[in-house]
């Protein structure tokens, strides 16, 4: 069995790090060549750090399966593009959605989730770049992927799932 591909990840080993336009360009290039259409720059030093901060680039084709985190919060600050965050109940029914866009679009550009709610992210522009903050350490077993949603490799089912979500204007 071949190992599953992983998202392209760059770790920082500096005490002081800054992120500029060239770094965003490099992330987009890495995401363009990534099997999942995304790449991340970790501002923290390793998976055991107490706080994880990442700058993540998503291509529009990127699929983030609905998932939830146990005993963790997460916040996104949108740097570039437009992103739809969709929330679900335990049966996979949509409960709410939040559209994030660049601040100059007079839109919400930051969100924080405190709790174990099912959610997915849908890039609405060709490229989305976010700054994500979440508590560490990273442990794969602290995230659950929804059994009611298609797996990443189920391409046709993924397209149908996303199309169904996008065809709805709002919940209710």
Description:
- The protein has 172 residues and is mainly beta.
- It has two helices and eleven strands.
- The strands form three sheets. A six-stranded mixed β-sheet has the order 1-2-3-10-5-8, with helices on one face. The chain has a three-stranded antiparallel β-sheet with strand order 7-6-9, with no helix packed on it. A two-stranded antiparallel sheet has the order 4-11.
- A hairpin with a 5-residue loop joins β6 (82-88) and β7.
- The radius of gyration is 16 Å and the shape is globular.
- The model has no long low-confidence stretch (mean pLDDT 93).
| CATH-defined fold name | Jelly Rolls
Q: What is the architecture at the second tier of CATH? A: Sandwich
By secondary-structure content and strand pairing, the structural class works out as mainly beta
Order of helices and strands: EHEEEEEEEEEEH
The CATH superfamily is identified as: Jelly Rolls
The total of beta strands comes to 11
- What is the arithmetic mean of pLDDT? 93
Helical coverage, percent range: 10-25%
Give the biggest sheet: 6 strands, mixed
Evaluate the radius of gyration: 16 Å
**Strand content bin:** 35-45%
| The first-level CATH class name | Mainly Beta
Detail the poorly predicted runs. none
Principal-axis shape: globular
State the end-to-end CA separation.
Answer: 43 Å
Count of domain modules: 1
